[in-house]
Design goal:
Layout: H1 19-32, E1 36-38, E2 41-46, E3 49-54, H2 59-72, H3 81-86, H4 94-103, E4 116-117, H5 127-137, E5 146-148, E6 150-156, E7 163-170
Antiparallel strand pairs: 1-5, 2-3, 3-4, 6-7
Length: 180
């Protein structure tokens, strides 16, 4: 579903919620939430994947991610046993398993790592070549601050289908439009 950073893991809509209510909540949240700026991104390898990550800790970015998880959890249907099993619960640390059960994803709050994935798992032989290509491709981006200025809602029309953009929600209050 394209280049992105996941703040709230994919979920099924709760039976007592609607897509319209979710979109309205996203609108309200986005209007009340200021843009978060990442001063500098760096290329990192996480569990064999290359990703862009903040150069250092960013409490404002973590608070933003925490708020997204917490504020939109009411829209998430409880995980099924099969969904829990797909996350390999036996390989999770206790706090990750607790997060999975409570929030639908193991890597939230204290275990969250903001990242924008750039590759699949790279072998030891592939890594240097891939790293050089990524460094070259993203050289300009890595020199500038990067604003996190929107939330985008994706939908999977059926299990296994490609994710499609359903709505895009710019962060922060927008000045009123002047009319003639």
């Amino acid at each position: 579903y394209g280049f992105h950073a996941t703040l709230k893991a994919p979920f099924r809509l709760a039976s007592n919620e609607t897509e319209a209510a979710l979109r309205a909540a996203l609108d309200d949240f986005a209007l009340a939430t200021p843009v978060v700026t990442i001063p500098r991104l760096v290329v990192s390898q996480i569990d064999g994947f290359f990703a862009l990550v903040p150069e250092g800790p960013l409490p404002a970015l973590n608070r933003f991610a925490d708020d997204v998880v917490r504020d939109f959890d009411r829209f998430r249907a409880p995980l099924t046993e099969a969904e829990i099993e797909r996350r390999s619960p036996d390989s999770l640390k206790p706090d990750e398993f607790r997060n999975l059960c409570q929030w639908g994803y193991p890597y939230v709050f204290e275990t969250f790592r903001f990242h924008m994935t750039l590759s699949g798992r790279a072998s030891l032989q592939e890594s240097p070549r891939l790293r050089a290509a990524i460094d070259s491709l993203f050289a300009q981006v890595l020199q500038r601050p990067v604003p996190v200025d929107a939330l985008t809602l994706f939908v999977e029309t059926e299990p296994g289908a490609p994710f499609m953009v359903l709505s895009h929600h710019a962060l922060g209050r927008r000045p009123a439009r002047r009319t003639a």
